[in-house]
């Protein structure tokens, strides 16, 4: 078994596309800015995030037609230099909810939301201190 991607169901596909491609700087697979599907990949690693139009999936699973409420996901992205990356994305319109700040002695984090309210955690892993 292999994890292919984490897929987020979104109502405003175009706004979410711009957030993941332009604000966070992830690479879109096909350039389908209006959807109904797009996969995004970071510059390194094999994990991916995909967006799926919620209305399209509601045709398959009717229960998805209900309005999404609450935090249903937390997308985690690891970056090498959290402070620099946060400066870059806030310059492109991202609004940080918290951080950058230590979470543990091994990790610093910052949090923000995408246009649908999905939480995004940015992590910088630190070397063990001792």
Walk me through the topology.
Elements: E1 6-10, H1 13-23, E2 27-28, E3 37-41, E4 49-53, H2 54-60, E5 74-78, H3 82-91, E6 96-104, E7 107-113, E8 119-125
Parallel strand pairs: 1-4, 5-8
Antiparallel strand pairs: 2-3, 3-4, 6-7, 7-8
Domain VOC: 2-125
Organism: Streptomyces cylindrosporus
InterPro entries: Glyas_Bleomycin-R_OHBP_Dase (IPR029068), Glyas_Fos-R_dOase_dom (IPR004360), MMCE/EMCE_epimerase (IPR051785), VOC_core (IPR037523)
Q: Helical element count? A: 3
Please give the order of strands in the largest beta sheet: 1-4-3-2
Straight-line distance between termini: 38 Å
Strand content: 25-35%
Summed over residues and divided by their number, the pLDDT gives a mean of: 88
Q: Total strand count, please?
A: 8
What value does the Rg take, in angstroms? Answer: 16 Å
**N-to-C SSE series?**
EHEEEHEHEEE
Sheet with the most strands, sense and barrel status: 4 strands, mixed
Structural class given helices, strands, pairing? alpha/beta
Tell me roughly what share of residues is in helical segments. Answer: 10-25%
Low-pLDDT runs: none
How would you describe the shape? Answer: globular
